[in-house]
Amino acid sequence: MQERFDLDPRPPDHRAVRNAPPELTVSALNALVKDMLESRIPPVWVEGEISGWKRHSSGHRYFCLRDGGAQINAVMWRSDAQRLPVEPTEGMRIRAFGSVTLYERRGDFQFVVRRVDDTGMGGPWKLAFEGLRSRLEAEGLLAPERKRRLPRYPISVGVVTSPAGAVLHDILEVIGRRAPWTRVVLSPARVQGDGAAADVARALARVDRAGVDVIIVGRGGGSVEDLWAFNEEPVARAIAACTAPVISAVGHEVDVTIADLVADLRAPTPSAAAEHAVPDGAELRQQLHAARDRLARALGRYADRRREQIDMLAERLHGRGRRLVEQRMSTLQWAEERLAQRTRRLLDRRSAEVSTLAAQLHALSPLQALTRGFAVPLDGEGHVLRSVAAFHEGMPFRLRVADGTVPCRVEEETGE
Amino acid sequence: MSEEQTSQDMPLGARIHRLQRIVADLEREDIELEEAMRLFEEGIAHLRSAQSLVGQAQLRISRLLEDGGEVAVEGEPG
Fold it and tell me: Alpha helix locations (H) across chain B?
């Protein structure tokens, strides 16, 4: 720190006699104090209550910051103030970052605020967030029943983020590992700073028009100001307007933005968003492998089942025959032995007929034949050729055997 | 041939859904032999397409332009 300093800003030849108290103009004194304040006190964070917030026509904001025992005049220049999400309210507690200076024209000591943050009690950011949230809620845009289900097997994934950030890298890495067959469509957007909200909203609309199956929108961590675009109305509305479901991944896990609330799914990180977006390839390949086995077994079981069905029918036919016999027997109890015997013989014959019928039914089953290694002849349209009449000399046809089809041709016509 | 082409355009999710249906249909009691064989062949075709898609090893990445056009992005991320 400076031990001694020149109190006199005038050139040396105008200086008063050494050791005598210096004589200064008001301007010189104020310039000196201003210089002292600015050079001796580094930029600081100050917490206090806002009082008398005024927006001047120039766009600059003038107000007081105070606590129980003191207050300081403060100013926020237009270029800094335009980053505020809303005008703070009277008595609002904020944290202000800035530096002290002296307004020389009036000799006012003042605090030039560059940034405003919320305190634990709230602040302009929380106020703006809650304001937009309750408006969107009233419109029903945050309703759980509005959430769309993510597709289980998306072919294309849209990504709205900064083309340079780690977010994109993380997302591509996860999708590349899990589902490398995916088509990724990047819709680049500026994710912070002036115009970021409008830029993100446009990028969302553009990627949705490109017809992707699911969209990931996000950015990495940062200050409340850095993340603010995702708390602005244009982004919220753009997410709600997408036809594809939207997964949000904004900032760190603790940061909840309006975009997260409107999105169909909120992921804690970009990698998690990518994991929700695409299925696990290894699992899917295993599923397909299992499906192949099931398909082959299903056809085999189909044939077995039909045969069982026919066996069961035959069994029922027999059973019915027996019941018929017993019924008749009881009604004919009073009849003569001879009559009974004759009747029994008659019924035995009928029973034999039933057996024959059952055997014929059994033999007629094409499935029975197919599963035992016989073949089914098919014509060009895939119809089964059921009789000799369907064949003629030179006619091509196909033989369907258990593991495929054999092309054939009728060599010579047999007699009818 | 034309059936094969429509089948080529089918999204993966629809294909997997169709496969599940085919297996369920084959397990049904009342279908004809011809239908059973047709279903089996269709099922095998879906399986082959799905497996060849899922077998792809490289992401296809494109970048949207302001005018709505797209450009392919070369290479895979580190």
Answer: 2-8, 12-26, 33-54
Q: How far apart are CA A186 and CA A338, in angstroms?
A: 97
Strands (E), A192-347: 214-219, 246-250, 265-266
Q: Please give the distance of CA A332 from its chain centroid, rounded to a whole number.
A: 79
Torsional sign, CA B73, B74, B76, B78: negative
A368/chain B closest Cα distance in angstroms: 11
Write out the two tokens for A280. Answer: 């696990």
Which of B44, B57, B59 is nearest residue A175 as measured by Cβ atoms? B59
Check residue A1 and give its pLDDT. 44
Interface of A with B in 134-173 (CB under 8 A): 151-155, 163, 168-169, 172-173
Q: Which residue type occupies B75?
A: G
If residue A345 lies in a helix (H) or strand (E), which one and from where to where? helix A337-364
What does DSSP assign to residue A227?
Answer: T
pLDDT per residue over B21-32, tens digit each? Answer: 888 887 776 777
Cβ count near A287 (within 10 Å): 16
Please return the burial class of A260, using the count of CB atoms within 10 Å of its CB with bins 0-12, 13-18 and 19+. Answer: buried
- Give the strand pairing for A93-103 and A108-118: antiparallel
Longest Cα–Cα distance of chain A, Å, equals 164
- Classify residue A61 by its DSSP letter: E
pTM: 0.67
Element (H, E) at A224: none
Question: Is any Cβ of chain A less than 8 angstroms from the Cβ of B74?
Answer: no
Each residue's pLDDT tens digit, B34-78: 888 888 888 888 888 888 888 887 888 888 887 778 888 865 444
